[in-house]
Design a protein that fits this description.
Number of domains: 2
Strand content: 15-25%
Distance between the termini: 14 Å
Shape: globular
Radius of gyration: 21 Å
Strand order of the largest sheet: 2-1-3-4-5-6
Helix content: 25-40%
CATH class of the largest domain: Alpha Beta
CATH architecture of the largest domain: 3-Layer(aba) Sandwich
Largest sheet: 6 strands, parallel
Number of strands: 12
CATH topology of the largest domain: Rossmann fold
């Protein structure tokens, strides 16, 4: 265990970074952890709320974030850290990032969303000693350092747990027609599937289940364990970095159907485990993909995508 002080700040609604926090505690003597997704804030008055509205209109930033996350700044402003690692630093105001940087020997960020998707990420690069990104285009355009997402859970499911062929869950956006095309193909071939869409309102659909409440990560994992295959529709045209669905397929030893062409460039890609849809209007997945078992990837490759390996690179 290293005698270092670590500050770890995430915005984690799904529990992806819990395993990373646990690994940090195994490696370092002192780790302070703040999950900003768990912080709530209520405006003190109608005037404060009104001012925040006009501030956002003029500046493009949510003043509520300044109020909400100031509790983190207040808690750490008088401390010193050897390394600070932040996920979603764009949520903080510049003045807050300056405090965090001042207190850190090494100031590091990880972007698991593209700059194309969250524009402020470009503006805060200048604060950091190093910025890692899973988006290859951003790495090239903004001189960042590439690192993929990681396997956050490694509970291989038993075959006896399987209840259906395919599972997917995502928000309701422009990807929905693509998911419906996959559902139509699966239904036409007699395969079973559970596809979920999270939306503000309930919609009755004969192929997809609409949910008004966000599916917890525990529920996601339970569904993954019951499926042979995970289906992932990436945010094409916005970002091409591999989502956590990809790394869930590795961790849980599940096959993957994906629209992300870039997955073929990764060393774990194997067409026996991963089927890439090139055109959602011309889906033709061979029967053998469904009937054959998951093919274990070499251990040396698997270990490259674990939380431990991820931290070895980022915290070096």
């Amino acid at each position: 265990m290293e005698n270092k002080r670590i500050l770890f700040i995430t915005f984690d609604m799904s529990g992806y970074y819990t395993s990373m926090y646990e690994e940090l505690k195994r490696r370092y003597e002192h780790v302070d952890y703040y999950n900003t997704a768990k912080i709530s804030y209520k405006y003190k008055s109608i005037f404060q709320k009104g001012y925040a509205f006009f501030y956002k209109m003029a500046k493009g930033q949510k003043l509520k974030n300044l109020y909400k996350y100031q509790s983190v700044i207040d808690a750490v402003k008088d401390k010193e850290y050897d390394i600070t690692l932040i996920i979603r630093p764009d949520l903080f105001f510049d003045s807050q990032l300056e405090v965090l940087k001042k207190n850190s020997g090494s100031f590091i960020a990880f972007y698991h969303d593209s700059i194309n998707n969250i524009k402020r990420k470009k503006d805060v690069i200048r604060f950091f000693d190093k910025v890692y990104s899973y988006e290859k285009k951003d790495v090239k355009d903004y001189d960042l350092t590439f690192i993929s997402n990681f396997i956050y859970d490694t509970q291989a499911a038993d075959f006896k747990d399987i209840e259906y062929d395919a599972f997917s869950v995502m928000s309701n956006d422009y990807r929905l027609p693509a998911l419906k095309k996959i559902a139509e193909f699966l239904k036409s071939k007699g395969y079973t599937f559970n596809f979920y869409i999270m939306d503000d309102k309930f919609i009755n659909d004969n192929l997809i289940t609409f949910m008004t409440k966000r599916m917890s990560n525990d529920e996601v994992i339970r569904n993954i364990k019951k499926a042979k295959i995970i289906v992932d529709i990436h945010k094409y045209g916005i970002q091409d970095g591999l989502t956590f669905r990809t790394f869930e397929s590795l961790g849980f030893r599940k096959k993957l159907i994906t629209t992300n062409q870039d997955i073929k460039a990764y060393d774990f890609y194997d067409p026996e485990n991963i089927f890439v849809i090139e055109d959602v209007h011309k889906i033709d997945i061979p029967e053998a993909f469904f009937s054959t078992p998951y093919k274990e990837i070499p251990e040396v490759i698997y270990r490259k995508y674990t939380v431990a390996a991820w931290l070895e690179e980022v915290m070096a």
